[in-house]
Amino acid sequence: MNRRFLFSLIALAVCSIVGPSGACADERRDSRQMMQLLRPVAETVADSMAQVICGNSPVALAVAVDSDGLLITKRSELTSDPIQVRLSDNRLYPARVAATSRPNDLAILKLDASVRLTPVRFQNTVPAIASFLVTPGRTGRAIGVGVLSANQRRIEAAGRLGVNFSNVAEARAMVSRVVSGSGAERAGIEEGDIILRVNGVEQPDEQRVRAALKQLYPGEEVRLTVLRGADNGGARPFEVSAQISELDSLGESKNDSLVNGPRNIRVTGFDVVLQHDTVLDPDECGGPILDSAGRVVGLNIARAGRVVTYALPASLINSELPNLIARARR
Amino acid sequence: MIPYVLAVLLATGQSVSAQDVIVPTPPFGGSVSGNSNSPQPAPSSIVSDAIISGTPAFASSGPAGKKSSGGQTSVAVPKALEVLAELGGVPKSLETLRLLEAQQRRVAQRATATTVSVQIGPAQGCGVIISQSGYILTAAHVAMRPGEDASITLSDGREYRATTLGMNRGYDAGLLKIDPGQGNEWSYASLGRSEAIVPGMWCVAVGHPGGYDAQRGPVTRVGRILEVAPDTLLTDCALIGGDSGGPLFDLSGRLIAIHSRIGNDITENLHVPIDRFASSWTRMQKGDAYGFLPGFRPTLGVRGKSSYKVARIHEVRPGSPGAMAGLQAGDVIVRFGKENISDFRSLIKAVANTMPGERVAVWYDRDGDRYRVIVEIGRQP
Fold first, then answer.
1. Hey, is the C-beta of A279 within 8 angstroms of any chain B C-beta?
2. Distance CA B193, CA B257 (A)
3. Across all residues in chain B, what is the average pLDDT?
4. What residues of B are in contact with residue A151 (Cβ under 8 Å)?
5. Which of A166, A280, B4, B267 has the fewest CB atoms within 10 Å of its CB?
C-alpha cells in the first residue's frame, strides 16, 4: 500500500530545493501581523488555556473543561513525571492524570490544588473547507493559523512493535526480523526471540500475539515476556518494555523525515478528525482550535506531517467529555 | 534567487552528451516492467484540434486579459476585497479577514472540481483540467514521457483514461490529455497570468498529498506567495509527494501555477508559473519532451561510442548507477525500459527520457547470455 506511492513521494518530496529562500517572514500567512490581527479571536479562550509540563519540558497545551480543576489534553505526550500545569496567568500547579480515553488519545488532568478554572464550550459546528482555524497558545495569543483541508474522517491506528514473525500462525511467535529504529530494537529484542506474553497475558501462538499487539496504540509501552535461546535448554524467560511506533515512521527515509519535520509520537488512531494545515510543533497540540468567529470547533490532537495537523472535532470531544469528567471526579 | 540544491529526484533529461550517459541501478525489486511496445509520440490528430475550447491564454500568445479566459473556476472578487486580492497583504480588520475566508472557500470548492489525481504505472501525481476538450496541466516529472498511458481520477471519484503529451522539463511543465470518446463532463480551470502575481498575495493549493485517498479526497491549503521568480513561485502552501502537478489558484479563482517541488523548510514550496506553460504550449502539445531542470539531469554512468552498431559499454563510472547495477565494460545494452536499444545513441536518448530516482529495467548481453537488471537513474554530478 505504501509501495504504491513510493515513487510519487520521491517525486515531490525528494525534489528538494533548499537554501535560504530569502522569503520575507512578513509575507507568510502566519506572519506577526496576522497573529496580531487574530489576537481577539484567540483571546476568547485565554482564561481557559494552560500548558502541560512533564519533568522539565513543556509537552502539550491543555484547556479547562470543568471549573473544578479539570483540563483536557493529549494523553500520549504525558510520558514522564512529575506532571505540572502552567495556567495562562502563569500560576504553576502539580497535576495528575485523572481519566483517559485510549481510542482518541485524550487525558483529563486534575490540578492538585483547589483552583477555579473557566471551562471552554466546544461547539458542534464543522467549518467549510478552506475556513481559517486559529490555534491559541498558553497565554491566549494566536500561535498558529491554517485552514480546514479535507472532509472529516476516521484515522485507523497504525501502531507497530517493529518485528516480523516467522509466519506460522499456530506456532509460538518467533521473531524473524527486527526493524531498525523501532521500539523492538530499542528494547533489545533479537531475531529468534520467542514472545510468550503481551502485557502479562499468555499468548500461545503467533496469531494471538499479533492480535494482542494490534490492540495497542502508537506511543504506548508494551511489556513483553521473551524467551531467548530456547534450543540450548535452560533458557529462562525475561521481560522487556517496548514502545509501539507509528508504521509510517519505521523505515522512513532521512529526506522524508526532514521534509515532514517534527511530529507527535502518536499521529493515528482517532475516531474522527478535522485535517488542517496549521504548522504546529508537537508540543503545541492538546489545546483548542477556533474558527474565525472564535468558536471552539475542536482540539488539536497531532502534528502528523508536513501538510497535516489533526484536530478532534468538537462533536467528538463533547461525546467523550461527560464520561471522562465523571471518571475524573471519582 | 532560489538556489537549487536538490535532494533526490525530480527530473529531467535532455539529450545527454554522447559520451556520458548514465544510469543508475540499485537492485531493488522493480516495478518498472518492460513490455516492448515502444511509446509512440502523441498522434497529431489528438493534438491538432488543440485548443478547441478553453485554453485561450495559450491560444493567443499573449497573456489572457483579466476578465477573459473562460473556465469555470473564476469567482468575482467582492469590492471590499479587491485590493487585498490584487496586492496581497494582511487584512486590515477581522471583518476583511472573514471576507477573505469566504472568498478562499469559494475558490477552493471550484479548484477542487478541476483537480485530478494522475496515475502512470506505479507513479502518482496530480493535474488540473484546463479545457472542455480535456487538456490537463501537470508537472513534467509526473507526466515523465510522451505517449504514456495515464489514469486520472476526478475529485468526485470518476476515472478517465488519458495520454501524456509533451513536457518542458526545464520548467517542470507537462501536459496530458483525456483520451477521446469519454464525454466531456468535467469542469475546467480559468487561467490566470503570471505577471499579476506579487509577493504577499493569497493563494489556494489543491492536491493529493501522499497519493489519492478516496476516503479523504483532495486536500486544500491556503497560503501566500513568498517569492516570484521567472520560472518559479515560492509559497507557504505546504506540499509533499503526491501533490506534484496539482494547481495553485489566486483569490479570483484563476489558475496561476502548478506544484513542482519542495525544500526542507515548510516555506519552501515551489510551483511552475502558468506563463511557463503558455510559452511551452506549442511544443508540449506536439508531444515534444525537452529541457532539463538544473540538478536533475539523469545519468546511467556508462560510456560508449556512438559509431558502433550496438550499444556496447566501454567504461562504467565507479559508484555510478550502472556500476551499482553490475554493468561492466563489454556489456551490450539491448533494451532500456520499454525502448529497444539499437546503438549507443538510442541509449542516450532513452536515458534522457527518464528521471533521477526512476527505476528502469535494463537488458544486456554478456558472453552470449542475456541478463536483466533494475537500475535506479542517478543525477549527473
1. yes
2. 9
3. 83
4. 216-217
5. A166
